[in-house]
Amino acid sequence: METQKGQCTYKAKGAARADGLLDWLIDMDGAGFRPICRALLRAGAAALMMVAGAAGAQQYYYEETTEVERGDDLMQDVVLGMQNEERESLGLAPLEWDAALAADANRYARSMARTGVFAHSNRASRSVPSGENLWMGTRGAFDYEAMIGSFLDEKRMMRRGGRMPDLSTTGRWQDVGHYSQIIWRSTRKVGCALGESAQYDYLVCRYYPAGNVFGQGPLDAEPSVLASGNGVMAHGTK
After folding, report:
1. How far apart are the first and last CA of the chain?
2. Pairwise CA distance, residues 235 & 26, whole Å
């Protein structure tokens, strides 16, 4: 087993604090990277939130815990509202909610909640060929706006006019992969679901047709044949 060090940032009332940097460990095993944040915090002071990307590219931070509203209709409203607002600002067609994608996402979200393994699904296991964005956080601590907002926040690292895999100003496309999937021009449908374990919430969003295709950019003109499993798709957000 290989261990890699990094850091967590403590967030209070939405503002990151430099004095809140905490050590975290990523343990690598055969199933992939499983992030574990370890810290000595005041009891009940914070909740943990993670955004899935490729190994070493995840974002981890602590935020004050609050009660949040949940529900399928609310999730659909937030997912479509926030993502389509961003797409509209770029002149892109809106995403539509797809029940089959949501059902597929629900099966995998429940699987992660049951196993505790936070990792992307095997593409072959998806009943609908699709892209996938994942999020994980302390159960009941984050609203849907925070979940989708963490994807959209990657916009600040997007390379203007870039093509896969040269999409990010950081040099790692995985740092912007959730955002690029959301704004991928040819993507038309989305379906999301939340799985809950005793400690964590697991959000799965599926997108059809899938984005993040190597050699293409999110705002490129649509190909004559929409993605349907053809071409090379990257992992991280996949």
Report:
1. 25
2. 18
| CA dist., res. 19 & res. 38, Å (int) | 16
Contact indicator for 54, 175 with CB cutoff of 8 Å: no
Give the global pTM: 0.72
Of residues 144, 143, 168, 145, the one with CA closest to residue 67:
143
Rg of the chain, C-alpha, whole Å: 17
Separate counts of helices (H) and strands (E) for the chain:
4, 11
pLDDT in tens, 196-228: 999 999 999 999 999 999 999 999 998 654 443
Under 8 Å CB-to-CB from 151, ≥6 apart: which residues?
Answer: 51, 133, 135, 178, 179, 182
Residues of the chain with pLDDT under 50: 1-45, 53-65, 225-236
